[in-house]
Amino acid sequence: MSPEQQVVAAARERAAALAARDPERLRRSLHPRFHWTSHAGERFDRDGYVSANTAGALAWQGQSLTEVEVVVCGRAAVLRCVVADDVTTGEGERVTFRMPVTQTWVEEEGRWLCLAGHAGPRLHAGGP
C-alpha cells in the first residue's frame, strides 16, 4: 500500500471511530498534540475533541469521504476531501452535513496519526 493509500485508510478508520462513538478507538487515530477547528470555529485539543464527538448530544451515524486528495512529504501528509457527516442531533433529528475538510497527518512508528484538522464551511445542496 502506498503512503497516500495508508493515509486514506487511516482517515477512514478515524471516520469509523467517530461513527462507533468509541473514544479509545478515536484517540488511537489522533496524535497526542492533535488540534481541530470545527466548521463553527470551535477549537479542540485531543481530549476535548474525543469527548465532544463520543459523549456529546450529537451522535455520529457515519462519515464518508469523497473528492479525496493526499500529498505526502516524508513523514507528513495533507489530506483534503469533502465529507458527508451523517448525524443525529441532540433533538433526535437525523441530518447529513457536507463540508470540505483538511487534515494533517504524521507517520510515527509505522502508523499515520491525525495531527490537526479543519472542517467547513458547510456546503449546501447546490454547492457552496
Automatic annotation (TrEMBL):
InterPro entries for this protein: DUF4440, NTF2-like_dom_sf
This protein is called what?
Answer: DUF4440 domain-containing protein
Q: Superkingdom of this entry's organism?
A: Bacteria
Q: Name all DUF4440 domain ranges.
A: 8-113
Q: Which organism is it from?
A: Nonomuraea thailandensis
